[in-house]
Specification:
Structural class: mainly alpha
Low-confidence stretches: none
Number of helices: 10
Shape: flat
Largest sheet: none
Number of strands: 0
Length: 182
């Protein structure tokens, strides 16, 4: 006796593979969209704190109070610590307009990566460079921290190469990867 699951149905395996790929693709896009919205929220909170401190003369105790009130209001959510609010403020300080923030590679990274950029690097140029590499290469936070620690930017240089202009695409890509390898 043969069960339906034992019989190969014409085209079934292809359909199943396609559906699984579509579901996974949708999950990834949904996660990226959610991350982008959280980053916009964090940037806007940071902007509001920064503005109030500049215009109303608020000190750092206000950030402590905000953190406590937000933690009380959203007890099941992480991310409302004083330290995290200060990271939000720093993000708004580094990328002063929402357009500048969302159009940079930093807006495609998880928040943990953003905090590494803010705490380990001093210039926006360096932050943007490492953010772009992390987004392009799919670096984990640990890899990002390591690349900053070993000074990858200095090792590979920040000047654009002329490989795409003088080499065919496959050779250009290979040459780019070879010089990126520290």
């Amino acid at each position: 006796m043969t069960r339906d699951s034992d019989v190969e149905i014409d085209g079934y395996a292809d359909l199943l593979a396609d559906l699984k790929a579509r579901v996974r693709g949708t999950q990834v896009r949904a996660a990226r969209a959610a991350n982008a919205e959280v980053l916009r929220l964090y940037w806007s909170i940071g902007r509001d704190i920064l503005r109030r401190q500049q215009t109303n003369g608020w000190g750092s105790k206000v950030v402590t109070r905000l953190a406590a009130d937000l933690q009380r209001e959203f007890p099941d959510q992480r991310g409302w610590s004083r330290r995290n609010l200060l990271y939000m403020r720093k993000a708004a300080e580094v990328w002063p307009t929402e357009v500048e923030f969302v159009q940079q590679a930093v807006a495609r990274l998880p928040w943990g990566h953003v905090t590494v950029l803010l705490s380990r690097l001093d210039s926006r140029e360096d932050r943007d460079w490492y953010a772009a590499r992390a987004a392009e290469e799919g670096w984990s936070r640990g890899v990002l921290e390591h690349q900053i620690k070993v000074g990858l930017r200095g090792a590979v240089g920040s000047a654009p190469s002329n490989f795409p202009a003088v080499l065919d695409a496959p050779d250009s890509d290979l040459a780019q990867q070879l010089v990126k390898d520290p």
